[in-house]
Structures are given as structure tokens and as C-alpha cells.
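Notes, p. 3: input format for complexes.
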Amino acid sequence: MIRMLLRVLGHEYARPVRRTVALMTMTAVAEGLSCALLVPVLRALFGSTPADAWPWLVAFGAAVAVYAVLRYRSDLSGFLVGTTLLRGMYHRLGDHLARLPVGWYDARRVGEVSVLAGQGVLQAMSVIAHLLAPFVSACVTPLTIVAVMIAFNWQLGLAALAAAPVVAAIQIWAGRSTAAADAERHDRDREAAGRVVEYLQAQPMLRVGGRTAERFRLLDDSLRGLQRAYRRTLLSALPGVVGLTLTVQAVFTVLLVLGAHLALGGSAGAAEVLSILVLAARCADPLLVLSDIAGKIRGARSELAGLDAVLRTEPLPEAPEPVRPVGRGLEFESVVFRHGRRTVIDGLSLSVPEGERLAVVGPSGAGKSTLLQLIARFYDVDAGVVRVGGADVRAIGTEVLMEQIAIVFQEVYLFDGTIEENVRLGRPDAGEAEVRAAAAAARLDEVIERLPGGWAANVGEGGALLSGGERQRVSIARALLKNAPIVLLDEVTSALDPVNEAAVHEGIERLMAGRTVVMVAHRMRTVRRADRIVFLDGGRIVEEGGHDELLRRGGRYADFWNVSMAPAASE
Ligand SMILES: Nc1ncnc2c1ncn2[C@@H]1O[C@H](COP(=O)(O)OP(=O)(O)OP(=O)(O)O)[C@@H](O)[C@H]1O
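Output follows (571 residues plus adenosine-5'-triphosphate):
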């Protein structure tokens, strides 16, 4: 467990963790010794000369004092190291998530990572702060007490020691028999978290479908599965708990019978037997909590394994000696890209000279958005090369590549902050005048004037307080502020009201001016702005040329526009 913890966190934490474990072990030994000193104290007190108890009482008091100091220091150390590890873990996870390919994040992963980052990290890090001390105490204190028991009365001591391998065997067996149930519960936990995220995101669709009161079957099924998994985990842990309790009771009974036998035979004093039985009872307490702690440690371990798996996900490799793009042209050379076993881009070659506006059209699922994502290196291609400014995107440093590209997505995400903060994301170090100019060019200034609070108005979580068109204007202002030489546009497909539509188009027109543009186009108005059009189907270019030329050709593009976009042609 500790080894796994250090692998996940990094070995720079090895020293404080080892120091804490050593301190906890010393504390447990001191606890055992202070308990064990009760034997000579009680033996002397109930013996013929009670005054002999004094030196033992002093030793007992000193041992308790040492134990108290050590306990304070080890608890403090566990807490401090635990919080340091927690902070370290959050940093490590945050840094790593920021380097993972954007394409890695889907709804399932978002649910999984939010559970991991919330309860998973806390649970995994609680090992040092809360679980390790009782675990070490449950293992070391009884062994120390047994060692002292052997010193005072070897028969009773050995009888108690016989319990050690039985307890260890029960723990190992319990760990193995609950492993499958633990793993299943963990999987169910993640699945349920993903379903909750999906359920929340699907609210508009569920309500439009009139399913306001009805529950979401997929979420229900997954929560029921989770409940079953929890029940199985509890049932599978039960034999271990019962076995441990029975073992402790059996050993105590053996000690009682053996103690009575020795006392009656005269080979041990009644006070000695009594005090050893008190010690045996003292051993039982930590042993009985052992199964509970071990269960919690197993839970923390599976969270740690989840964190380990995320941290082992490879980020897209960075070139050891990054190159800088020269110019603003784009090129796809025999590019193949797959999602799982599905080929989404199939041997596509295309070049977009500097300053050209290229529209990509085609049926849904043709791979249009994927084409944009490959330019921005959200994923790496499976074969072929994508070049920006003549350089393979894999050879350009991520930051430099991102400097070259401004993207306006179909779905605009705004952070819960002010409009100004959201626009500034385009270029955080931009001056006030630049931010204002970008907002004006995107016709966002009209929106800001209307909002109570103006620039300081809060946009709400995900930009919920703005309309779709207003959010698009924020995203265009961001892109304008970034002032990157290459613009990628994934056109808004939902209808905007006429005022917003005109504003968005005006903003986009300004954004495209003098830049290399690749736009996924769904509307005639957008396509007409392009210098060239490629028609994509099944990840391949089926036709390419100018709008009028393609219409005249009467091929796939003409069919597509005549059939599916007929209403738009009247724009
Ligand atoms: N994360 C993903 N995992 C698996 N398959 C995916 C993923 N993202 C996209 N795909 C698949 O890749 C194919 C191309 O998707 P893409 O979004 O590029 O199409 P598109 O032409 O932009 O479609 P639309 O016009 O409907 O947005 C689709 O079949 C889609 O199902």
C-alpha cells in the first residue's frame, strides 16, 4: 500500500512517510509496554509486600508519559504528512489532467475523474492521516504485549502468540475473498458517477420528452447495481469479521482455562494470571478493529489504483526538440485516424494555403469536427501527418501550436465568472483597450451594455445567464483577442435569433479577415464566404472546388445542398 502510495505520489515523499510509519511503530510499542507494566504492578500490589509496587508504578507512569508524547507526535505527523500528500496529490493530478489529450475527456471520464478528484483522493490520502496509526497499533501493540507476557509467563504468552498466525491468515483470506466484490463495487461507483453526470446533462432532453416525473432508467439501473455491489461487499467481508471475533474469543477462553489451571497447580500466582488476562483483553480491542481498518485500507487502495491508472495515461508526447511553424498553411498528408476500431478519417490528403478560407461540409458523422481537432492536436493521427506552417503538429511544442490557432466551437463553454474574465481567457495578458476592442469587434459590447453590472456581470455556471448567440459572441471575442493566424470554426448549428445571427456573422467575418481559416459549415451563408469547399463523407474527400462550380457539377455536394439544406438556400 505504502509502496503504491509513493509510486503514485512520487518518491520525494518517501522520507516523511517512512518517518511517520517509524514514529507510529514506536508509539504502538510504547503503548504495548505501558500496558504490559500492569503485570508487575498488579503482581506486587496483590503480593505479600505491596510496597514493592512503587518502582513498577514509577516505571508504569514513565511509560505512559512516553507513550502520550509519542502518540501526540505521531498523530500530528500523520496529520501533517497526510495533508501534505493531499496537496501533492491534487497538484500532481491537476498537472497531469492538463497534459492529457483533450480528446480523452468524454462524459464517462468526466464522471470518473470528478469522483476520483473528490472522494477518491481524500479516501486514498486518509490512509496516512487516519488509518495508518490504528492499523500499526492493531498489529504492533498486541505483539508487544504478547512478548512481555512471554517474559512473565511463557505458557500463557505462547498460548496468546498462537493467535498471531491465525489472525494474519484470516486477514489475508478476508482480503482475497473481498477483492472481487471490492473491485466490482469500485467499477459500479464509477459507472454510477458517469450516469449522474449524463443524467444532469440530459435534463433538457428528458424534459422536452415529457419525462419530468419519471426517473432515468439507465441511472436507476446503475444505482441498483451499485446497491447490489455494496451488499455483496458487506456480505463478503462478514466471514472475516466473524472469524476474527471467534478467534479472539477462543484465545481468550484458552488463556482463561490455562491461567486457572496454572493458578490451581500453583505454578502461577492469582494476581499474575489475573493481570495477564487483563492484558489479553487489552490486546483484543485493537485486534477487533483490525478487520474494519483493513476494509477501509482496501477501499483506499482501490481509489489509489484508480488514481494510478489516470496518472499512467500517457499525455501526447512532446517533441524533445520542438520546431516552430513557418507560415500559416495547413496540410493533411494521407491521414488516418480511428476512434477505437472505427476509422473516422480515412487516408485524407488536403492542403490549405496560407490565407485561404476552406469550408468543410458533409453529412453528420463524416469526420468534419475531427478534422479540426486533428489540426489542434486534440488527438494524434494513426497514420500520415498533419502539418501546421510546414511542421508536423507532433514536432511543435503544445504551447507554440496553441498560439497559432484560435478555435470557435459549436458548444461554447463559459466559466462561472465575469464577462471580462471569460473574454480574457483568449489572452490573459491583453491590455484593457485590446479587450474592449475585441469585444466591440465581436459585437459583445451591445450585450455588455444591456447587462446589469456591465463588464463585471457574472455569466453563471457554463454561461447559463447568456443566450446561445451571446455566448457565441463571447467566444468570438476571445478568439479575436487571441489574434492567432489560424482560425478553426465549428459552426453553430442551432438557429440564432436574427439579431444574434447578424452579430455572430459580423464577428466571424472580422475574425476570418487575413487569416487561414478552416470552417465546418452547415449554412449556405457560411459556405459562400469560403474560397474553396471540400465535401467529406466517411472520412474521405469526395468532392472539392468552389460553391458554384460544385453545384454545376451536380454531384454529391449539389445533392446534399439541394436535399438537406434546401430551406437554407433561401437565406
Ligand atoms: N470520442 C469519440 N469516441 C468515439 N467515436 C467518436 C468520438 N468522437 C467522434 N466519434 C465518431 O467519429 C465520427 C466523426 O465524428 P465528427 O464529430 O468528426 O463528425 P461530424 O462530421 O463533425 O458530425 P456532425 O456534423 O454531426 O457534428 C462519428 O461517427 C462519431 O460517432
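Residues 260 and 497 are 93 Å apart (CA to CA).
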